[in-house]
Amino acid sequence: MATSFENLPEELQLATSAHVKYIQSLDTRKDEYDYWLTEHLRLNGLYWGLTALHLLGHPEALPRAETIDFVLSCQHPNGGFGAAPGHDAHMLSTVSAVQILAMINAFDELETRGTGKAKVGKFIADLQNRQTGTFAGDEWGEEDTRFLYGAFNALSLLGLLHLVDVDKAVDHIVACANFDGGYGVSPGAESHSGQILTCVAALTIAGRQDLIDTDRLGRWLSERQVASGGLNGRPEKKEDVCYSWWVLGSLEMIGKAHWIDRDKLVAFILRSQDPENGGISDRPGDMVDVWHTCFGLAGLSLLEYPGLQPVDPVYCMPKTTVQRVLGQSWKKTPLSSSAGSI
Amino acid sequence: MESHGVARSIRARTEEQRLQDLEKIKAYRNLENQILSQSASGTYNFALFQLTTELLHLNPEYYTIWNIRRRCLISDLLFRQPCELSPSGASLSTSPNATKERPLDASLPSPSDPIPLYHRFPIAGKNSAGLVASTALADPQRSDIQYQAPNSEGRESDGKVLRSELAFTLSAMDPGIGHPSTAGSDCTGDMGNGTQPSVQDAYQGRTQLPAWGYRRFIVAKLESPELQGKSMAEDEYAYTTKIIGFNLSNFSAWHYRSQLIVRLLDRRGGGDRMRAAFLDEELSVVRRALNVGPDDQSLWYYHQFLVSQISEYGDGHTIAPALTVDERAAYLRHEIEEINDLLEDYGDIKWIYEGLLECTLALKQLEQRAERGGGIFDVKTWLVKLQALDPMRSGRWSDLERRVRD
Which of A25, A72, A276, B134 lies most in the core, judged by the most C-beta atoms within 10 Å? Predict the structure, then answer.
């Protein structure tokens, strides 16, 4: 369904070339303290930046060879990746590494110059708690449904999902479901949009969307849109551009994306741009960063903003990448709503 | 990489401000490094525990630090034999009968309690290539730890520590409530020097989620057979009442309350009449709150929870499973009346119409299931109102309308 953007004010345009330049400039800011304060997110940041560039239609804007070099320099002998060279291996950076290599079609380099896919798969699979089905982030054992999604995401891209107990993991997600249709970080925890996206995406990868109370969840998610048109992450919280992804991606996957006002959300995201220097922030007038740039653009892509590459809501990568790696990508399918709820 | 709520500005800091920022950054990173490197070395002791207090004071969202705090509790502050305290306050049991890896938390029911790292991913020192298959605990300080049920003195001490942690979470959730000057005084009396950081100003506007998660972890510890050995559902239920009393609009508190209720009722052990009375009371609590704050989402979500407890039956695990269909229908009709009353005072608040719709549809489903006819409600009018009051969600109201028509 193509959305018309006739209602948008003329001055709200996507500042594509400014955003490309912004992302290209990120690695040149080594004289800024914030650069060093965020070293523990470097590989993740590279994924966010690269995804943004792909969606903007400028995949070549970051040098491919250097990107591969950097990614592989973060890898440990056990297959896991840290956020930067020398940083401990962690699920989140490992998933980012796999996604980056998928986007630039460099899995072969992982075989020839890295530890190879199998070891990466083993690193991820070893993080599953085989009693509860959930996943830890690293050897320190912190468990979070985000890590479960990360594992499903990366393993499916690597063709290694069979290494883990999918059914047990699915059971764990179900245990994290709340009466409002949403999902929390662990059983008993309250619903949160970030966790909802990860749980819904993981269930989608596992082919178990039947377990989702789509009406209740759709209702909860649709209520994230506030008067400004932006989306928040939980009731009573402020709207934030990144929820254009977490909330909208979830709505898309359960077939209820039409339950929010798309024009208003587009306008909110565009107002949160810095059209001169590039980048998108959490809300209009705030400082931009690569996280919000990535998820703001992903949101706009889901909203079918003209000129953007289509994004796959399950993987948060271009559909073309997912199509190439898996042979298929997300298709909107009408889901029958569950009985018993409004 | 990720900034929230920081106003965009052309970098116009004065040199003095810039230097001040650099000092702040340096101090923050030093503290962080101290904590992370001590944690990496496996030395969980009271000194590290205190460092986490300091960092959580600055950043209660940093969930890894809450995790480190948990590990300090598990490996050092709890289950100590007081006579074996070393002068620095670090605890190392060195019983010759030490068993190395009896799972400390195997008996604990809490699903949110992470299994301690050394029982799942034994540390083999910083040189390890990540996870290690062997079960040997290479850290010499760890190898002699004996995990045994504490004696009564140990139980009392641990109880104090954990209850002071509950107070810590309270102050983390609402700086206005907590009394940091008294929080932790019991445990610092046992353990030597402990300063009481002021947490009042630090937590304004921050997320409470890690604090709630930590609280659930502490509660699970207190409930464990080694300590109180009984459920804290009553206390925690009372805690939610307290928090809600300070601020009705607290989604986390209402959510936690909804989680506690079934356990609470099982413990109270009363029969069907008691359960029905409890349901009545909860409904009036939330209705009283709605009378004051009819546009408060958190309240409506809790109301939705209670309605679903009435309308969804069959699996037995609800507040009042023995209610008959007629009784359930009566409850729902009563709710519809009450919500209609709200309309008189408050007019055009979309949540009210949504509440009416929800109860009505629930009632219809109930009656269909029991094959009874019901009264006619003005569903179509309410939908028209919702379209008018809440056009952002018109896609949803249209879908609903289509369903109601069928």
Answer: A72
Sign of the CA dihedral with B223 first, then B258, A190, and B167 last: negative
Which residues 182-201 of B have a C-beta within 8 angstroms of A?
A: none
The full set of domain ranges for chain B reads: 1-230, 233-406
Summarised one tens digit per residue, pLDDT across range A37-94 is 677 788 999 999 999 999 999 999 999 999 999 999 999 999 999 988 877 789 999 9
Of A141, A188, A286, the CB nearest to B114: A141
* Closest residue in chain B to residue A290, using alpha carbons only: B1
Q: Which amino acid appears at position A92 of this protein?
A: L
Give me the amino acid identity at B62.
Answer: Y
pTM of the model: 0.75
Residue A306, helix vs strand vs coil = coil
For chain A, say whether B124 makes contact (Cβ under 8 Å).
Answer: no
pLDDT per residue as tens digits for the range B75-106: 877 765 333 333 333 333 333 333 322 223 33
A245, A198 in Cβ contact below 8 A?
no
B169: tokens are 């979470």
In order, the DSSP letters of A114-153 are SS-HHHHHHHHHTTB-TTT--BBSSTT--B-HHHHHHHHH
Q: Rounded CA gap, B250 and B297, in Å? A: 9
Which CATH number fits the domain B233-406, given the four candidates 3.40.640.10, 3.40.50.2300, 1.25.40.120, 1.10.10.10?
A: 1.25.40.120
Residues in CB range of A97: below 8 A, 6 or more apart? A43, A71, A74, A75, A81, A120
Chain B from 150 to 179: CB within 8 A of any A CB: none
